[in-house]
Each structure stands twice: as C-alpha cells, then as structure tokens.
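[User]
If only I could read backbone structure tokens as easily as an amino acid sequence. I have put the entry right below:
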Amino acid sequence: MNSNKSMDTAAGIFCALALMLIWLITSVEIVTYGIPGYYEKEYTKYHVLDDGGIDMTMEDLLQVTDEMMAYLRGNREDLHVMTVIGGESREFFNEREIAHMEDVRALFLEGLLMRRIMAVLAVTLILFIALRRKKDTVYILARSFQAGSAVIAALVLVLGLVISTDFTKYFTIFHQIFFDNDLWILDPSTDLLINIVPEPFFVDTALSIGLMFAVPLAAVLAVSTVYCRRIKVSR
C-alpha cells in the first residue's frame, strides 16, 4: 500500500512539474506575443529610434518586429524583411543577424515542442492517477502541486537572487549554454537588432515573464492548500 501511495505521489509531482513547465513556456509566449503594445512601449521607453540612431518610423519598426516574431514562431519562411531606413528601401537584418535569429527560432520551436510533450505527459499521469485512485485524484494532484511548487519556488528564488546580482553576466551565460556559436554577439555599429532590443529590454521581459509565471501559480497554490486542508478536516 505504501509503495502504491509513493507511486501515486511521484506521478502527481511529475505531473505538477510538467504543468508548471507548460505554464512557463506559455508565459514566455504570452509576454512576447500576447501583450498589446508591448514592443512599442519598450521601444519608446528606451528611445531606440533616437539613441540607436535608426532613421525609421515607429510604424515601420513595429512592422519589422511583427515579421520577426512571425518568423520565430514558424509563420514566416525567412527573415529577409524589407523596410525603409533613412528614406531608402533596404533589408532590416544583415546576414549575421539572420543567422543568429535562425538559432533563436530553433530554440523557440523546441520550446513549443517541449510544451506539447509535457502536455501529453501531464494528461497521461492524470489518467494514471485517476484510474488508480479515482475519487482521490484531485486531492493527490493538489497535494503534489504543493510539493512541486515548493521545489520550483526555491529554484526560482535562488536563480532570481543570483541573476539580479549581475544580469549581464548571467545573460551571457544563458547564451553560452543555449547557443554553440558567437553569432549572438552583435555590434551596435553594424547590427540594428542589438539597437532595438538593448539589455534593459530583456530585463523588463524577464521580469514580465516571471510575474506572468508566478502570480497564477501562487493563486493555484493557495486554492490547492485550502482544498487539501478541507479534505483533511472532513476525513
């Protein structure tokens, strides 16, 4: 019996972690694709058209951004995007930027694939628990979510504290981990991409993703805690 309970608990925790990973990837997608006016607000905040020395309109820059984001999501075949800069028609991205964005696209699409895999895993584990424990399924999942969220909360807290000490350093480490080349090292004098998305842009985006990820999970954790306490009292 104890062995069966341990198996159900392990399945529940893995399910909870899978669901959290799904939500993390979804949080990234919501922030980067789902917040109206996000890029215009960030571009304006950091004066990218002024300080970056890019002679183009905000409307054209946002159009380029839309095409870039469509490419990263797999909805555009290439990143040869024509626009008007300095009154002349030209491609926005150069060959080095395109090569780097090919790597970013591959990483993003791998994340979306991972989300689908985790969704299948989560459904499988829920069915596994439901077939074994039936009426206790929700209780086991709620309790497992509490355990899983404790692990994730500790991990996120530690990572957040570490990264906050030197964002530049750990942003560099992130690139070194996920990219096997130096194409991500761009030159502001020749590469427009680094000028429209300066480091503070990524700081804001990381914080937005963190909030998007944490707030709903905190709400679910609170509901799970209340539910588990009520079930214990009623037994």
Summary: The mean pLDDT is 91. DSSP finds nine helices and two strands in the chain. Residues 4 and 132 are 9 Å apart (CA to CA). Residues 2-234 form one domain.
